[in-house]
Design a protein that fits this description.
heterodimer, A: 305 residues, mainly alpha, MetI-like fold, 2 domains, 15 helices, 2 strands, B: 276 residues, 14 helices, globular
């Protein structure tokens, strides 16, 4: 009530000022809901993850402090070492192939965009992107499982019929192939968007100067797409470290530890071995790797502008 | 000479077409296989013979009669739709404040929100599980819906709302328009494209999410389609037709959205790409 009477007697100038204050103060109400969610479901968990990694903890019993023991354990945990190796191998193989593949497809489809087939291929390449990894895992598992899988019936006449998922030398590469198949459409669309931003004058100038397609590609297209390439490469790296669904449905990390990845290891440590404290230690390593790549990416983009 | 060049061009074009066709096949065949297998009751993955009179909807009938599947489908729908709603509402509210208002600590709070994008959900899942367990929210919709919004949404909405001229909003305020009315009647209609983009990506993300629902649902009450599908696969190891019918129905919503709003996807990828 006092507020209201104050309001009536205020001068117009003061009124405007008050209104401005209300306008300002309500800002906090506007950001609060999202802030609560982000703090509750991102910030608090990462703090918990850090704190609990110094404890022996299994959800059922309260945590006990054990210092850096969990971190020392990383160096002797063969499954962890294998999962790191697998993840890096995955990244080293997948990122270049999908980056170059996406770039070439984008340039090709953009050049041919008047042809219906090129437009069709562009739409079709995005279909795996929108579908769930679980669904893809289930379908590919049926296509690949065993010696007499449907795919093997097709490649049989080429003279080889590998056990795509059961052979420990091949399984990881099979996963790489499926991962590229799923994601390449996404990266290609990023490149297509990047290509549309290159001013047409550049290409015209190159033609006037008598450059052939290859010179044009290396002297104009690639440098102009630098920003997109940074994005595609780093997203590819970050996604490589997060891989879980595909492994879970296709191999479960096996045979042996042949396709073990960091996230699968974290999952198993917590839900099969009930070693939550140590699972969080591995998760923190994953977080550090992720953060490092994000920061390096920011540096790359900054040095651009 | 010119003729030779022309001939070569035609050859290159033909080879190009063949390669494109091959790529299209590689992309589509697994989905086609999924769909065609779902229409057969031969219980075999290796039977490639399709004749029109052999095709049947029996798998779909069986899967729909099974109450579990329908429940999972509804759960997934409820989760994805609610996730979209809270994502859009919260992100646009916050985006409005960040884009059009002045308040103490604005830049810092915004950067703080963006910084949460660096934290992968694979890292937060275990602590989140502990939190939800403590709150007694496991096997409830809260656990599955509330963590859906990310800072990506507020980034998108702020970006779109920065483009609204300040004069427009000031004019409305001078006319005595309340804060909330400005937001609903002036700002939201102007950022429709960003809302559509956020809606599509949140929906598909939530619909396809697997790891968190797998952890947060220990029984069937709020289990999602992706988790249900994965358990179904181990349940019916031989009945490929039934599993493929389930997979096809899981795929359908995303596919329909994609078919209807294809151009929005390209836009959305570009927008989410520039976040950097």
């Amino acid at each position: 009530m006092a507020e209201l009477s104050q309001w009536v007697y205020d001068t117009p100038a003061k009124k405007t000022k008050r209104k401005w204050r209300i306008w300002e103060m309500t800002s906090y109400a506007y950001i609060l809901p999202l802030l609560v969610i982000l703090i509750g479901f991102y910030v608090i968990p990462i703090v918990m993850s850090f704190a609990l990694s110094f404890t022996k903890y299994n959800i059922m019993q309260p945590p006990t402090y054990i210092g850096a023991k969990n971190y020392m354990k990383l160096f002797t945990d063969e499954t962890f070492i294998k999962s790191i190796q697998n993840t890096f191998l995955f990244m080293i193989c997948v990122v270049p192939i999908q980056t170059i593949g996406a770039l070439l497809m984008a340039v090709w489809l953009t050049a041919w965009k008047r042809s219906w087939l090129a437009r069709f291929v562009q739409s079709v390449m995005f279909i795996p992107v929108i579908s769930s990894m679980i669904l893809i895992g289930i379908v590919w598992r049926i296509l690949l499982n065993g010696d007499t899988s449907p795919l093997n019936m097709v490649v049989d006449w080429l003279g080889f019929a590998p056990d795509w998922l059961g052979d420990s030398d091949i399984a990881l590469f099979t996963l790489m192939g499926i991962s590229i198949w799923k994601n390449i459409g996404y990266f290609m669309v990023l490149y297509i968007a990047g290509l549309m931003e290159i001013p047409a004058v550049y290409h015209e100038a190159a033609k006037v100067d008598g450059a052939n397609i290859f010179q044009e590609f290396f002297a104009i297209t690639i440098p102009c797409l630098r920003k997109t390439t940074v994005l595609v490469v780093f997203l590819g790296i970050i996604w490589s470290f997060q891989i879980f669904d595909l492994v879970y449905t296709l191999t479960g990390g096996g045979p042996g530890n042949a396709t073990m990845t960091m996230v699968v290891h974290i999952f198993n440590l917590n839900f099969k071995q009930f070693n939550t404290g140590y699972a969080m230690t591995v998760a923190n390593v994953l977080f550090l790797i992720n953060a490092t790549f994000v920061i390096v990416q920011k540096r790359f983009l900054k040095s651009d502008s | 000479m010119i003729l030779k060049k022309k001939k070569m061009k035609i050859t290159v074009t033909i080879i190009g077409y063949v390669v494109l066709l091959l790529i299209a096949c590689i992309m589509v065949v697994p989905f086609l296989y999924m769909f065609l297998t779902s229409l057969k009751v031969t219980y075999s993955a290796y039977n490639f013979k399709f004749s029109l009179d052999e095709l049947t909807l029996a798998n779909y009938v069986q899967i729909i009669e099974e109450k579990e599947f329908i429940k999972y489908f509804l759960n997934s729908t409820i989760i994805a739709v609610s996730g979209v709603i809270i994502s859009v509402v919260f992100s646009s509210l916050a985006g409005f404040a960040f884009a059009q208002k002045q308040f103490y600590g604005k830049e810092h709070i915004f950067l703080f929100m963006l910084a949460t994008l660096i934290i992968p959900s694979t890292v937060t899942m275990l602590p989140l599980y502990i939190i939800m367990r403590q709150l007694d929210w496991l096997n409830t919709f809260y656990a599955l819906i509330l963590p859906i919004p990310t800072a990506m949404g507020v980034f998108l909405m702020r970006q779109a709302m920065l483009g609204i001229p300040r004069e427009l909003i000031e004019a409305a305020r001078i006319d005595g328009c309340s804060d909330l009315r400005i937001f609903i009647q002036i700002v939201l209609p102007l950022v429709k494209p960003a809302i559509i983009t956020l809606t599509i990506f949140t929906f598909i993300g939530a619909w396809n999410e697997f790891l968190w629902p797998l952890i947060a649902t220990t029984d069937g009450t709020v289990r999602t389609l992706t988790v249900g599908l994965s358990t179904m696969r181990s349940q019916y190891t031989v009945n490929y037709g039934l599993v493929m019918a389930g997979a096809t129905l899981t795929f359908l919503p995303s596919f329909i959205i994609y078919m209807v709003l294809q151009s929005k996807f390209i836009e959305g990828v570009t927008l989410s790409g520039v976040k950097g």
